[in-house]
Design goal:
Layout (H helix, E strand, L loop, with lengths): L7 E4 L17 E5 L8 H14 L19 H5 L3 E3 L8 H4 L8 H21 L10 H26 L29 H18 L18 H14 L3 H14 L22 E5 L13 E2 L4 E2 L1 E3 L1 H4 L8 H6 E6 L2 E6 L26 E5 H15 L3 H16 L11 H15 L6 H7 L4 E3 L8 E3 L12 H6 L11
Antiparallel strand pairs: 1-2, 3-7, 4-10, 5-6, 8-9, 11-12
Length: about 500
């Protein structure tokens, strides 16, 4: 497979124990290491772990570039109905947005390789690390736990796009699960069930290891590392997809107890990266100057280029006068005689969410951290998990929904009585509102087997995709299939 050809850059700009990297993970590749080489010190394993985190900033993972968008950042909303492509986009990503992808689509190959680059670097970090366990058990646990969690997350993200089903025990096609750095290894495509088996094994090991470490991974003002709480957040998300609702509820509860929701007064500061107490951010990928951005695929702040605009439909879901998310997520910006709707979340850091200039209190450079997990999502996971269990859990699920809404909407009047289906529909709408442009919409539609429809008011032409269509699962890049006789193509693309 092509990802076997990667050379892994190791960041050596940090101090030997990475204490200088605790505030912002900063990778500067100063040399290349062949993947067949073996580390001789635990410091080298730690450097490799830093490199694994840095690979999440790749332009085909969370990062964006001139011709690529964050595959697991805003692309899932572009592929749904909540972000609408404009003429300023110049037809970038039209293949994904219009669901016309084929086996030779370059952007899909870049996404595949970006995720497996994270996997490969995590595997390099893990290779032979146990030989240091007797001397430094807490440190080994800290490094190993993060690497296992990162490996599991990358495979889960691959499953979200390439998996033919999300059901826990499905025998449909999942993805190859790579656990070694052997360049001659040609792994077969596992079933969805087998893929989940590996994901859960890695995450459960990571959860245990990260409960017994030599030092804390994060502080109250910075959550740039996958600590035990972040692993529990990932477990809550994976269990929701797998329809293991009791486990999803349990893990979401543990995270909620650890990291509370932001208040309505300080919610907007989350999107300015101005949160002295890390208000509800569980884990983020950090970006510094010169490391790109996770957001230029939507709106390029510095040049006022509006590639994708929020749809009329999604903006209409909010209480515009009272919901703090409306002013945090949306804004208008003029270009000549035209006033355009823009996504306000990722404009840049600063002190004012409504500002659109540095002079007014906000940088216009799209330089923001990408928030992978927030407590708001945990409330929605728990609400849905409880609603799906039904019975006595319905009232608790409704309480979760009301609590989240009350934290976002001034003068909110709680809903008092919903049927199970009514509650599930309300939670689905709230996920669309709360998690707008954060990389969830396409996957939410897919996992709940709904259809996606774009109306003429929000697209050049009306478009729809029904549940069960082959386009819900991406084709494996043809080059990967050609290079690996064990790798099966996604159903419908042969």
């Amino acid at each position: 497979m092509k990802f076997n050809k990667y050379l892994l850059g190791l960041g050596l700009s940090c101090s030997l124990v990475l204490t200088a990297c605790e505030d912002v993970i900063d990778l500067e590749p100063e040399f290349q290491l062949e993947i067949t080489d073996s580390f001789t010190t635990l410091d080298e394993h730690e450097y490799s772990l830093t490199g694994t985190y840095a690979r999440l900033r790749a332009t085909a993972y969370f990062g964006t570039g001139a011709q690529t968008t964050g595959t697991w950042a805003s692309l899932p909303d572009m592929m749904g109905e909540d972000l609408v492509r404009t003429s300023e986009d110049l037809s970038n990503w039209a293949t994904q947005v219009n669901w016309n992808y084929t086996t030779d689509e370059n952007d899909l190959e870049e996404a595949w390789l970006a995720a497996y680059a994270v996997v490969l670097q995590a595997n390099l970090t893990l290779q032979n690390i146990d030989r240091f366990e007797a001397a430094e058990p807490g440190r080994v646990n800290r490094i190993k736990g993060q690497a296992l969690a990162l490996r599991a997350m990358a495979h889960f993200d691959l499953l979200r796009f390439w998996g033919e089903s999300y059901d826990r025990n499905s025998e449909a096609k999942g993805v190859p699960y790579k656990t070694s750095v052997d360049k001659f290894d040609l792994p077969a495509r596992l079933t969805v069930r087998q893929t989940y088996d590996n994901i859960f094994a890695d995450l459960e090991d990571a959860e245990e290891l990260l409960g017994n470490v030599d030092r804390a991974l994060n502080s109250s003002t910075n959550r740039a590392y996958l600590d035990q709480t972040a692993v529990k957040a990932l477990l809550a998300r994976v269990n929701l997809y797998a329809k293991q609702y009791e486990a999803a509820e349990t893990y979401a509860t543990q995270v909620i107890e650890a990291i509370p929701l932001a208040t309505r007064d300080n919610f907007s500061s989350v999107w300015l990266d101005n949160y002295p107490a890390n208000r509800e951010v569980i884990w983020k990928v950090t970006y510094s100057a010169g490391e790109g951005s996770p957001a230029t695929g939507v709106h390029i702040s510095s040049t006022n280029r509006n590639r994708f605009r929020p749809s009329v439909a999604v903006m209409g879901l909010y209480d515009q006068a009272n919901d703090v998310r409306y002013t945090s997520y949306f804004n208008t910006r003029s270009l000549g005689d035209n006033t355009r709707r823009i996504v306000n979340k990722f404009v840049g850091r600063g002190t004012s969410i409504t500002a659109l200039s540095q002079a007014a209190g906000r940088n216009m450079d799209n330089l923001v951290d990408w928030k992978i997990f927030r407590t708001g999502e945990m409330y929605l996971i728990r609400a849905e998990a409880r609603a799906m269990q039904g019975g006595a859990k319905l009232l608790a699920g409704l309480s979760d929904l009301n609590e989240l809404r009350a934290a976002r909407i001034a003068n909110y009047v709680p809903a008092l009585n919903l049927t199970q289906q009514g509650l599930l529909d309300a939670i689905a709408t709230e996920r669309r509102k709360e998690l707008f442009a954060e990389g969830h919409r396409w996957f939410d539609i897919k996992r709940t087997t709904r259809s996606v429809t774009r109306t003429e008011s929000d697209a050049t032409t009306t478009m729809s995709l029904a549940p069960g269509a082959r386009e819900w699962a991406w084709p494996v890049p043809q080059g990967e299939v050609d290079a690996n006789a064990n790798l099966e193509q996604t159903t419908g693309y042969n």
